[in-house]
């Protein structure tokens, strides 16, 4: 069989990238990867352009199916686009969403240089060779070891010459601490265990199915030279009784709420009062002095981050997603971001909520539910009048949708409450949930 002269290439998502790494290390026999729709349609279009016929963009549905079926070899790249592995396809299948998955074997194209504690990485073959002739206990870990787990592990590995600790750092692998902290905590644990130890991070991505996770962990342990009877998923939970140096690593990842990343996200019609409340909230928090604040106001964002975007559904989604991305990064570092776009679509707001959660931040949705009639009466910028006159099309609330949130943490109607009252309600909520400290407000500042 001859390989395609110029195989298609694409960037695989993190979990698939982790599987590729495990397959290159010989832990998995095969990988199963998703073919991006754009890759299939561009293959189909290029066939059509060379005489295959098709729809406007040159690709019919059967042409895209044919194109996916014709992929025999593909180059899989890392996030920067560097090809890391060549896939030789053994099987193809359709996904429920109508896309394609390819299964196959991989060969290396470039050494994987990135990843969590990459310098500690050792392939199983190297570890087995290093400890040849010795009795090796290999223990996958997805949580920091607490005192009880360390005692159990010490007992379980007593009869072994070497203990290889395998912190699982693949996509979605640890729910208690970050992958980096898990490796740090494991390095500390290794020093607390008797006998010879080695720490090797393994990028095993978490599956949906716990049985599959367990089977894969056993496979990882066996690849590294042996498996001991030890609960593969550590029973340790956040708040477990950890030895001091591990406790410090876990605690650093679980700051008290007033130092946790937080996004306060205002949504509401134009003129509802989002910017006014967002600015006042920022000032109140700065006056209290307990947190720094990044304000991502709708108008300012549109000049900076979203210059050039208009008000079509796609442009609004892009604008709000960009705001969410920046806010999530602020939250990732323990900051407080206040956002104030109209954000008319529930899906986009949910996506922002998700991005913030993935960055480890908390998310508070404030619906500024001032009735349209009052927003229109205010009409500070004269835009409602223009929208009514048909001079502006697709104006939110007049000729474009606003999907009322059903998941708001607070609903504030500024036609019946003052700015100070509304901001006071938000401060009360943030304080009740611990994101602001109750004792840091100089009397009378929050409510004048
Ligand atoms: N067609 C249309 N619809 C709604 N709003 C319009 C439109 N055209 C311009 N403007 C002005 O743009 C401001 C809204 O921008 P946002 O970035 O907050 O909107 S969105 O979240 O992307 O939907 C909004 O400002 P605010 O009044 O501060 O909300 C309007 O002044
Ligand atoms: N209780 C209130 N809360 C917020 N804004 C109010 C209130 N009462 C009157 N306003 C006025 O309504 C207007 C709201 O405009 P703005 O804050 O720019 O809204 P948005 O950002 O939602 O478009 C401002 O002129 C503000 O002074």
TrEMBL record:
An example Gene Ontology cellular component term from the record? cytoplasm
**Key word Isomerase present in the record?**
no
The pathway entry for this protein reads as: Sulfur metabolism; hydrogen sulfide biosynthesis; sulfite from sulfate: step 2/3
The residues listed in the UniProt record as binding ATP, with positions renumbered to this chain, are 268-275
Q: Which InterPro entries match?
A: APS (IPR002891), APS_kinase_dom (IPR059117), P-loop_NTPase (IPR027417), Sulf_AdTrans/APS_kinase (IPR050512)
What's its EC? 2.7.1.25
> Which catalysed reactions does the entry list for this protein?
adenosine 5'-phosphosulfate + ATP = 3'-phosphoadenylyl sulfate + ADP + H(+)
Q: Which UniProt keywords apply?
A: ATP-binding, Kinase, Nucleotide-binding, Nucleotidyltransferase, Phosphoprotein, Transferase
Which residue ranges does the record assign to the APS kinase domain?
260-413
Renumbered to this chain, region (Disordered) spans: 44-64
Known role: Catalyzes the synthesis of activated sulfate.
The record's Gene Ontology biological-process terms are:
hydrogen sulfide biosynthetic process; sulfate assimilation via adenylyl sulfate reduction; sulfate assimilation, phosphoadenylyl sulfate reduction by phosphoadenylyl-sulfate reductase (thioredoxin)
Protein's UniProt name: Adenylyl-sulfate kinase
Identify its protein family: Belongs to the APS kinase family.
Give a GO molecular function annotation for the protein: sulfate adenylyltransferase (ATP) activity
């Amino acid at each position: 069989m001859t390989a395609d002269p110029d195989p298609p290439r694409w960037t695989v998502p993190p979990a698939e990238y982790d599987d590729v790494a495990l397959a290159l290390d010989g832990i998995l026999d095969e990988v199963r990867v998703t073919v991006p729709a754009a890759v299939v349609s561009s293959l189909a279009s290029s066939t059509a352009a060379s005489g295959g016929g098709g729809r406007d963009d040159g690709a019919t549905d059967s042409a895209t199916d044919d194109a996916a079926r014709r992929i025999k070899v593909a180059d899989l790249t890392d996030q920067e686009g560097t090809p890391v592995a060549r896939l030789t396809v053994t099987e193809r299948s359709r996904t429920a969403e109508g896309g394609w998955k390819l299964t196959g074997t991989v060969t290396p194209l470039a050494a994987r240089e990135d990843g969590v504690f990459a310098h500690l990485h050792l392939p199983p073959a190297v570890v087995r060779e290093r400890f040849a002739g010795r009795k090796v206990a290999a223990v996958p870990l997805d949580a920091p070891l607490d005192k009880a787990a360390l005692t159990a592990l010490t007992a379980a590995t007593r009869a072994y010459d070497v203990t290889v600790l395998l912190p699982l750092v693949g996509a979605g692998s640890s729910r208690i601490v970050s992958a980096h902290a898990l490796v740090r905590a494991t390095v500390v644990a290794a020093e607390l265990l008797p006998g010879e130890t080695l720490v090797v991070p393994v990028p095993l991505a978490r599956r949906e199915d716990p049985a599959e996770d367990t089977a894969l962990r056993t496979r990882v342990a066996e690849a590294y030279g042996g498996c001991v009877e030890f609960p593969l998923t550590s029973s340790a939970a956040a708040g477990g009784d950890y030895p001091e140096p591990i406790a410090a690593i876990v605690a650093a990842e679980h700051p008290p709420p007033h130092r946790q990343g937080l996004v306060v996200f205002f949504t509401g019609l134009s003129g509802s009062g989002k910017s006014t409340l967002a600015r006042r909230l920022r000032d109140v928090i700065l006056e209290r002095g307990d947190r720094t604040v990044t304000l991502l106001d709708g108008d300012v964002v549109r000049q900076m981050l979203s210059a050039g975007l208009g008000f079509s559904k796609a442009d609004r989604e892009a604008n709000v997603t960009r705001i969410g991305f920046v806010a999530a990064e602020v939250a990732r570092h323990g900051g407080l971001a206040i956002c104030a776009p109209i954000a008319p679509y529930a899906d986009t707001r949910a996506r922002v909520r998700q991005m913030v959660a993935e960055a480890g931040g908390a998310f508070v949705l404030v619906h500024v539910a001032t009735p349209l009639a009052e927003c229109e009466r205010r009409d500070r910028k004269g835009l409602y009048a223009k929208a009514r006159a048909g001079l502006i099309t697709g104006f939110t609330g007049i000729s474009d949708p606003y999907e009322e949130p059903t998941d708001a943490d607070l609903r504030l109607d500024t036609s019946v409450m003052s700015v100070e009252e509304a901001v006071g309600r938000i401060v009360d909520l943030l304080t009740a949930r611990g994101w602001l400290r109750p004792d840091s407000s100089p009397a009378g500042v929050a409510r004048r």
